[in-house]
DNA sequence: AAGGGTGCCG
């Protein structure tokens, strides 16, 4: 009685008082513990029964299933094997229930082979035997063998039940058997009792994973009593098919229906908010999770980190991260990636070091860290990860090889990049990474050569391929070629140009001085131009000092309620380059009133494997006195050689520019620091988060000549390679980059 | 028995 009431301690007490304990009383107790999930206790009791039970007490057809279930639940293979021996010793080798539970035990311990041996040895089998072995194969990843047995089951005239069908449906999903999945769906629809929620839920999941979200929707709509799993399956189905808006709509409907979300629902909806940048809805979900206590689930906290990061609220993400008591790999990976996305790659590397103390990074972690290394030119750190990848064998598939390739390309190391490229089969992304590398160096000819090679290798170009290609043409002034490729996108490769391609074309024409043509492209394009398109025009107007058209572009951008500082800076530079100082002052005032802060310039330089970061106007660096002295020395020499400062006042980095002597720009500081801390003659590699200014460009050119060192500065757009007083960009921001490999 | 959080190249 007490067992049935769930009061096990009371039952144990009564059991202890009993004078005579027969098999039945042992069974009741063992079964009670096993059913409640107290598997250790159940196994312990079974042991006592054998030792203390006395001559008359032997395990029977009821005892074995209970204790085997406990072994399966704990994945105690050794114990299970021992009990298998007991089954044979006590003569139950032909009892169907006992053998069925043996199959289940082996399967749960991950040993489907021994389960199969038991199954094959049975002289009679029932539906449960078939279910046990079939779902065993599915659970252990051998879906094909499971499906084979499923067909065999029907040949043997056993009718599968709903449980069988649920596993079969998820097996179809795993092996990607869409037509079989559809057939199973048809079969289920004709089943005697009709399908239940779990069958429908797995159908939703299966169709979603095939990208057939409309079919998933049909199944979902037909479910009469949708439970939390049905709703969540549909939400994540939309999510995985890139329909985050629909995912959020579905969640709202679920709320209206009064279904209570659980931790998985919250995580899925947060993921939808993250991809859409819906800060307010996500914040509400956060509040809900706090109120209901669901934040305690690691999955929810991790989803929150990702959500805040992608909504550019990295400080909130950090707050959530630091509140997690036991962070797992995903928590760390999410915060590292979040810092990377929010332009805080330097800190991302610091978090990676901290993480490694207690946890082993996985492939996704390494991809995120490599991406951070690529942003700040942390070559040594990237190489360290490369070594780790080779040691761990993680790098053979997935995104890791391309992440390594990207890291080498962005760090300017083309030789290891090409080695990385050559060692493996390349997909579109790999080609795109190399193309992007050429675009950054303004190597239009090389980009076209590479594109031809790519076409020769039967890899289909995608939309990103054309962005890289158009970019390369634009930076090299190859207008005709660029326009030709733009046209061929649709005609030859059936890729419809998107907003980004149009932005490239506007840039292509604009940079070449064909400003009116660029404007015409914008006017005639089939979709509504977005801020980056007008931004490309504005930038072209800045280069060619066309105030009227630039103002028109700026009005369009500001009319779209855009809060990005970059466009204000561009307009400001257009005014200052054109000598319109009143307008500059007016615009700066507006910016101050709007509370728009200009991103601080930041440069990084890696010395002996350590990345050093410099902010513009940095005065706190321990070696700042020395750095300033060195730079001042060069400045004096330059002036003596007849150099005069450029007239314009750039507000790219700091408002009160100290341009007369020493502008304090971060790339200068980084170069100065590297000069002091590396051996003479050694090359210097600097990475910067904004564009280089003209005065720094002049100065570094001069420095490269005086100290006879090669200096590379990679800014957001180009690689500048300074050697003997000449820059690879040809002082135009574009030009030939001389490949010069130093590792 | 069914649903889940992190990912390269504009």
From TrEMBL:
PPR repeats lie at residues 22-56, 126-160, 196-226, 227-261, 427-461, 462-492, 498-532. InterPro entries: DYW_dom (IPR032867), E_motif (IPR046848), PPR_At4g14850-like_plant (IPR046960), PPR_rpt (IPR002885), TPR-like_helical_dom_sf (IPR011990). It holds the Pfam family PPR. Keywords: Repeat. Residues 649-731 form the DYW domain. Belongs to the PPR family. PCMP-H subfamily. This is DYW domain-containing protein.
């Amino acid at each position: 009685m007490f067992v049935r009431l769930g009061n096990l301690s009371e039952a144990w007490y009564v059991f202890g008082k009993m004078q005579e304990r027969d098999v039945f009383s042992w069974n009741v107790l063992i079964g009670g513990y096993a059913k409640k999930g107290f598997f250790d206790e159940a196994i312990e009791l079974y042991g006592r029964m054998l030792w203390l039970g006395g001559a008359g007490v032997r395990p029977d057809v009821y005892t074995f299933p209970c204790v085997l279930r406990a072994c399966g639940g704990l994945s105690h293979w050794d114990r299970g094997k021992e009990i298998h021996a007991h089954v044979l010793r006590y003569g139950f080798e032909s009892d169907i229930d006992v053998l069925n539970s043996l199959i289940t035990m082996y399967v749960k311990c991950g040993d489907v082979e021994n389960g199969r041996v038991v199954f094959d040895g049975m002289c009679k089998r029932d539906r449960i035997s078939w279910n046990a072995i079939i779902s065993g194969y599915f659970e252990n990843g051998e879906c094909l063998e499971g499906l084979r047995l499923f067909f065999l089951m029907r040949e043997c005239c056993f009718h599968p039940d709903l449980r069988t069908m649920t596993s079969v449906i998820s097996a179809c999903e795993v092996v990607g058997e869409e037509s079989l999945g559809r057939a199973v769906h048809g079969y289920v629809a004709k089943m005697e009792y009709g399908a239940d929620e779990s069958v429908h839920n797995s159908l939703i999941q299966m169709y979603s994973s095939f990208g057939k979200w409309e079919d998933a929707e049909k199944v979902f709509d037909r479910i009469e009593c949708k439970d939390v799993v049905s709703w969540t399956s549909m939400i994540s189905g939309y999510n995985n098919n890139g329909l985050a808006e629909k995912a959020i709509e579905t969640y709202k409907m679920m709320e209206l229906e009064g279904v209570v979300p659980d931790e998985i629902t919250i995580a899925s909806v947060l993921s939808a908010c993250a991809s859409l940048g819906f800060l307010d809805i996500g914040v509400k979900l956060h509040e809900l999770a706090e109120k209901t206590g669901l934040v305690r689930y690691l999955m929810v906290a991790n989803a929150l980190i990702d959500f805040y990061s992608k909504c550019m609220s990295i400080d909130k993400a950090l707050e959530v991260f630091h509140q997690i008591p036991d962070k797992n790999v995903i928590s760390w990976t999410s915060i590292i990636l979040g810092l990377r996305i929010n332009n805080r790659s330097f800190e991302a590397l610091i978090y990676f070091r901290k993480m490694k103390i207690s946890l082993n990074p996985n492939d996704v972690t390494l991809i995120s860290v490599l991406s951070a290394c690529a942003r700040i030119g942390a070559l040594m750190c990237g190489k360290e990860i490369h070594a780790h990848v080779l040691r761990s064998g993680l790098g053979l598939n997935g995104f890791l090889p391309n992440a390594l390739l990207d890291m080498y390309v962005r760090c300017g190391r083309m030789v290891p990049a090409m080695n990385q490229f050559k060692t493996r089969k390349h997909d579109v992304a790999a080609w795109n990474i190399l193309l992007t590398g050429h675009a950054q160096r303004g190597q239009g000819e090389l980009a076209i050569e590479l594109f031809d090679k790519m076409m020769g290798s039967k890899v289909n170009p995608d939309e990103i391929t054309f962005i890289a290609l158009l970019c390369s043409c634009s930076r090299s002034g190859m207008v005709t070629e660029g326009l030709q490729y733009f046209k061929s996108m649709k005609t030859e490769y059936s890729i419809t140009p998107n907003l980004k391609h149009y932005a490239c074309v506007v840039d292509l024409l604009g940079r070449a001085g064909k400003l009116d043509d660029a404007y015409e492209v914008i006017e005639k394009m089939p979709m509504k131009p977005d801020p980056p398109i007008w931004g490309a025009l504005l930038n072209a107007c800045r280069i060619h000092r066309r105030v009227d058209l630039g103002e028109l572009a700026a009005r369009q951008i500001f009319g779209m309620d855009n809060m990005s500082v970059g466009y204000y800076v561009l307009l400001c530079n257009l005014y200052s380059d054109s000598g319109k100082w009143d307008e500059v002052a007016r615009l700066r005032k507006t910016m101050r009133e709007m509370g728009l802060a200009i991103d601080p310039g930041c440069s990084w330089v890696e010395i002996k494997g350590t990345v050093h970061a410099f902010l513009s106007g940095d005065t706190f660096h321990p070696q700042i006195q020395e750095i300033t002295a060195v730079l001042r020395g060069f400045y004096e020499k330059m002036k003596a050689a007849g150099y005069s400062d450029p007239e314009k006042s750039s507000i790219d980095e700091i408002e009160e520019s100290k341009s007369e002597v020493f502008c304090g720009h971060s790339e200068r500081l980084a170069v100065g620091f590297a000069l002091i801390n590396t051996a003479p003659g050694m090359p210097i590699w600097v990475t910067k988060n904004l564009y280089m200014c003209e005065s720094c460009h002049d100065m570094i050119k001069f420095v490269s000549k005086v100290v006879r060192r090669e200096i590379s500065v990679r800014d957001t757009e180009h690689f500048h390679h300074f050697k003997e007083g000449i820059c690879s960009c040809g002082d135009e921001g574009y030009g030939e980059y001389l490949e010069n490999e130093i590792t």
